[in-house]
Design a protein that fits this description.
mainly alpha; 9 helices; about 5% strand; globular
Length: about 260
């Protein structure tokens, strides 16, 4: 079957990325953009499982689950290129970012305490963005709304790193560098698509290396996951836990918590 035609039919999304549709398989519209989402699915799943096992605060688990929801939504979107799946990809990015911002902004709060005003403000922002985006279907609106959330998230994380002396600044820097590099590759993929397609054509089996949107998924997933670990580490330290970053099966970093107790 010719590239561009496949199991899910003609794309109905407002965006069709640089990867050629159905080039690899009849069942996945953008193969590399789809499978690259594993960086946003597997690590947070493992992280959430280990936090639940240690009976830690649900807010820490929620951060991991929010990233996993983004990864699953992005998988469905790039697999189908359907508009409904596009919303399943993009809207969790807004709501998930709100979860991360709230957790970082309240990282120094006592256990079981909440900031209702901040919760209401973030919920209102997310609800407005959701309603307006569904009505206007303009990608640039979503990108600006999400960009504001990312900037707020980075600023809040930086504030935490300065206010908590023992915050793991190395993890935060790694998170920002990974995410920032992915963002640069995302822009290159958007602006120089024709050149990238030509490079893929001439590089044979190495062509996936030039699927820069897929690299954006991988690096954004790594950066966000490391940012979540940074926040979880700071939160556990505030509550008096001894923490250490270890590697599950020597590949996936996670937060090992000692002397944990049920909250």
């Amino acid at each position: 079957m010719a590239p561009g035609l496949g199991y899910w039919g003609p794309p109905s999304s407002t965006i069709d990325w640089c990867e050629e549709n159905y080039r690899v398989t009849h069942f996945i519209a953008e193969f590399w953009n789809t499978i690259s989402n594993v960086s946003m699915i597997i690590p947070p799943f493992i992280g959430a499982f280990l936090l639940v096992k240690d009976k830690l605060e649900f807010r820490l688990v929620a951060s991991h689950l929010s990233l996993m929801c983004v990864g699953l939504g992005s998988w469905c979107f790039h697999m189908t290129l359907l508009y409904s799946m596009q919303l399943l990809d993009e809207l969790p990015m807004i709501w998930g970012s709100a979860v991360l911002i709230y957790n970082l902004a309240t990282v120094e709060y006592p256990a079981k305490s909440h900031n209702l005003l901040l919760s209401a403000g973030l919920f209102t922002y997310c609800a407005i963005v959701t309603l307006v985006y569904i009505m206007c279907n303009i990608p640039i609106f979503f990108q600006i709304a999400y960009g504001l959330m990312v900037c707020s998230l980075v600023a809040t994380a930086w504030k935490v790193s300065r206010s908590i002396a023992w915050a793991n600044k190395t993890v935060l820097v790694c998170a920002v560098v990974a995410y920032g590099t992915g963002f640069i590759l995302w822009n290159i993929d958007n602006q120089f698509c024709s050149s990238l397609k030509s490079m893929r054509y001439h590089t044979g089996f190495l062509s996936p290396l030039f699927e820069f949107h897929a690299w954006w998924h991988i690096l954004a997933g790594i950066g966000t996951y490391m940012g979540i670990i940074f926040g979880a580490d700071a939160r556990c330290s505030v509550l008096g836990y001894k923490t250490k970053i270890k590697y599950w099966n020597h590949c996936v970093p996670y937060l090992d918590v000692k002397n944990g107790h049920e909250m």
